Amino acid sequence: MRRSALFSWLQAAPLALVLAVFLLVPMAMLVIVSFFDYDSYSLIPDFVLTNYRESFSSAVTWRTFGKTLWFAGLTWVITFGIGFWVAYYLAFVVRGDMPRMVLFVLCTVPFWTSNLIRMIAWVPFLGRNGLMNSALIGMGAINKPLEFLLFSDFAVVLAFVHLYTLFMVVPVFNTMLRIDRRLLEAARDAGAGFWQTLWCVILPLTKPGIGIGSIFVVVLVMGDFATVRLMSGGQSASVGLMISNQIGLMQYPAAAANAVGLLAMVLLLMAAILRAIDIRREL
Amino acid sequence: MSKTTLTRRGALSLAGAAIGSGAITGFPTLWAQNIKGVTLRQVGTGVSGLNAIAEQVKKDLGFTLQLTVSDTEAVAQRAATQARSFDVADIEYFSIKKVYPTGVMQPIETRRIKLADKIVPIFSTGKLLPTGTPGQGTAPHTVGYVDGKTSTKFASAPTGWMTLMPTIYNADTLGIRPDLTGRPIRNWRDLMDPAFKGKAAILNIPGIGIMDAAMVMESMGNLKYGDKGNMTKEEIDKTIAFLIDAKRSGQFRAFWKTFDESVNLMASGEVVIQSMWSPAVAAVRSRGIACTYQPLEEGYRAWGSGLGLAKHLTGLQLDAAYEYLNWYISGWAGAFLNRQGYYSAVLDTARQHMSENEWGYWMEGKAATADILAPDGKVMEKVGAVRDGGSFNDRMGKVVCWNSVMTEDRYMVQKWNEFIAA
Amino acid sequence: MQADVELISVTKRYGGGAVAVDNVSLAIPPGSYCCLLGPSGCGKTSTLRMIAGHEEVSEGDILLAGRNVTDMAPAQRGTAMMFQSYALFPHLTALENVAFGPRMRGVAKAERLKRAGEFLDLVQLGTMAGRLPSQLSGGQQQRVALARALITHPKVLLLDEPLSALDPFLRTQMREELKRLQRELGITFIHVTHGQEEAMALSDIAVVMEGGRIVQAAHPREVFERPASAFVARFIGGHNVLALPPGSFAVRTDRCRLVPSGGQISGTVTAIEYQGAAVRVVVACPDGQAAEALLPDGLFHAAPVAPGDAVSLGWEAADAHLLATHHAA
Fold this sequence. Notes:
The complex is a heterotrimer. Chain A is 75% helix and 1% strand. By secondary structure, chain A is mostly helical. Chain A has a domain at 51-95 and 164-282. In chain A, strand 1 and strand 2 form a beta hairpin. Chain B has 2 domains: 3-170 and 302-351, Periplasmic binding protein-like II (D-Maltodextrin-Binding Protein, domain 2, 3-Layer(aba) Sandwich), CATH 3.40.190; 171-301 and 376-421, Periplasmic binding protein-like II (D-Maltodextrin-Binding Protein, domain 2, 3-Layer(aba) Sandwich), CATH 3.40.190.10. In chain B, 38% of the residues lie in helices and 18% in strands. Chain B has helices at 3-12, 14-20, 29-32, 51-61, 72-81, 93-99, 140-143, 178-181, 206-220, 233-248, 259-267, 278-286, 315-328, 332-338, 347-352, 356-364, 392-396, 409-421; strands at 39-45, 64-70, 88-92, 105-106, 108-109, 136-137, 161-162, 165-176, 200-203, 252-256, 273-276, 292-294, 300-310, 343-344, 372-373, 379-381, 399-402. In chain B, strands 1, 2, 3, 4, 6, 8, 9, 10, 11, 12, 13, 14 and 17 form a 13-stranded mixed beta sheet that branches. Chain C has 2 domains: 5-225, P-loop containing nucleotide triphosphate hydrolases (Rossmann fold, 3-Layer(aba) Sandwich); 232-327, CATH 2.40.50.140. In chain C, the strands form 4 sheets. Chain C has a 6-stranded mixed beta sheet with strand order 6-7-8-3-9-10, sandwiched between helices. Chain C has a 5-stranded antiparallel beta sheet with strand order 13-17-14-15-16. A 4-stranded antiparallel beta sheet of chain C has the order 2-1-4-5, with helices on one face. In chain C, helix 4 crosses helix 5 (138-150). The two termini of chain C are 36 Å apart. Classes of the chains: A mainly alpha, B alpha/beta, C alpha+beta. The A-B interface holds A 38-42, 54, 58, 60, 63-64, 67, 123-124, 127-130, 147, 150-151, 229, 232-235, 237, 241-242, 245-251, 254 and B 73-74, 76-77, 80-81, 97-102, 198, 201, 204, 206, 247, 252-257, 264-265, 268-270, 405, 409-410, 413-414, 417-418, 420-422.
């Protein structure tokens, strides 16, 4: 008995060690540094609350957190809207495993290039003299270029949606594939129409996939800084961007304090998602 | 060749270097064989982190210069926090103000720089001509020297210990698209002209961007700074409030951070007037798009970079680094940089590596007598072209401020972030 | 009397041109228990699914209580289906599963839960209302599925191999219950099965299918006593299908006796199987045919034989049932 208990501990040890070294230690460092003082060129080990006070007493910080949430929320709504239907189409409309897999792989093709390239590709398309505006003007739909297409929140959300919809599609698609087709017939047999089946059967059964997809999308958006900076032309802020700016200026404790704030927010959101949806069935 | 073998080789040759070090001034040939195995790792910005320079170093000096290129902030960050990851830092003076006091660098002995007295006086006295006044801000001469070999305190006057050996500098102004502005641009305040609403940009590096903003503020008559390069909290508040208003009213199309971003903004016509760097203007022009590096009545905002030595450098590697520093101002590199629209720290030696026409165009404000070629051989400017802003003296003589790190840096950066987030 | 369910020349053709159901016509009188019987791939499930409306009809018409429902949605037909392995909604409790139909039809929550409770009581599962399907045994799940199908008051209940997932003991019990329910409710049950025993035990009409066609549709006794073809005789079991002059015929194994000599067919005993009340004796004939006799145990033990013994098999001439020759399997 004793030996086997010891053995189980030993078996769990490598993973625990990896988690400790690569997750807990950095997090602990982050928290510790967030209480350090600093000047323009060095960290001063100390225990001060100024980093938090300076950050969270500023309306801008709260606005930035708000904005980040807004980006995350809007991106979530849209990626869910698109992702759900793409997954639905692949899982329920497409017949046969072969075409389904081919279409699925097709969905992932854009992801064979880097995030940055996919983002930058939008610039010549959406710009003032870009393809979109040229086309619209050429068609006579507008007479002067639409400025909001690029360097705007619209552009940021568009890029997010483009980058992250697949992260919603994959888990939702995966969950949908596991739904027994006879359940849909059973619903139909009981008098459910398309939307009733969707709402009462498919949606509840797809929840774990939606939960996982939501976590992906929300976490990715909350932590992003490159997309926000590039697509807003530096005009919009997100918490990630704020942290990245502070790191760039070597204000590590301030960055750490904001990072702790961001971490708290992300954890709260995850808790909310996990509370709403039991994803364990999927794991 | 792998890193490990290099370091091992470096260690083995330490003994030889110790013997040879007594002969540095007189008989460099004693260790000239050993030096071929040395690799120097340099971090720096894309401005001067150029492969052509590394190739020339290999050719002229025989050792390897390994370049890592990053943006201004990242270079400073890396220099301050990962001291062991580089041997030579190619870094801006306003960054060295933050980096040097962390103690990761060692001072450069002026006596080991052969052409030290030929370096333009901007770096020693802050004045181009004896009659001039130094620009405001973190002017190179204010952070160019330290008190002693182990001191991290900046000296108020030249000493025998340099923080950086100056290499490259320039006078920055606004870049414009003359075909799209529709009128001549003369002042910094034109950046805020409502006619350019949604078509203006400034750069999002706080230490530089705030200076551009200060130039605009003064030009508009909104504020007269005590010292633009060292603002009070109140001045910072006013400047940032002004920027936020301009942002909210939609004056800016974007805030850029990298060279390429600024080029793309301008070339695509997203922006018609913005903070810009000289070679970025050249890059726009090389696409056949009209772009002017517009001299302005109020003068220029300047910046300077130099090469600094990491503290851990000793022995043969240190000797190699000094060789490299001396080489840098010995002419070839200076000419190479001058041809890109920057200025070299020692002018005379650079001149020897430039044609009469090149020197006339780039340095004297004369019309080109033949096509001006880019380093890659492409035609950059046609016969008859005159450099925007004119001669070296016209441009560097009109520097009113330098990129800065202020006493209220922490506050300024916080406020700048608020502006970006607004 | 008008038939409850009527198939008129119904054909089901799949994408690749494969014909699953080939020109099938069938009329099922009201209130009957009908079993669709046959080996897998015979078209019985496709037929059921077409009646349910889960499969499109390629040709022909389906009439329910005189109404042509060929193009109607399942719920409009007045049918309800109980799916193989039940297809209970895993995220809903037993009660909610049963209440699903009324919920889809917009019945108020209190009302539909009350009714669902009554139907759960009907299948003796009133105490399990709050459980999820995964917390119920196979038999319990089946009852829930039954209640869920019945709550919509279908005129016809369609059952797709409802007993196949149960163990033999439960199967017999459930069989009785299905029959009882059908009798009490007085509606038509159409039950797909591949077990002839099940069909015989339950049905008023047994429909034997082969290769997408109906080969015999009659009362099970009729089917057993007068199989329409060699295939039916073999599939239904309990028959020897033999070819002797003047033709092919079937004879029930329990009508065969071992005789010392002079029987209709002779051969060697190859196997003896003791089944309690009866003993099964298999005889191989020199011409390659095999036949068997199911002997009451008393009779067998009075004159036992052993494998390898030469025996002769005999039966009353009236017991030999001539088969149509074109059905030779």
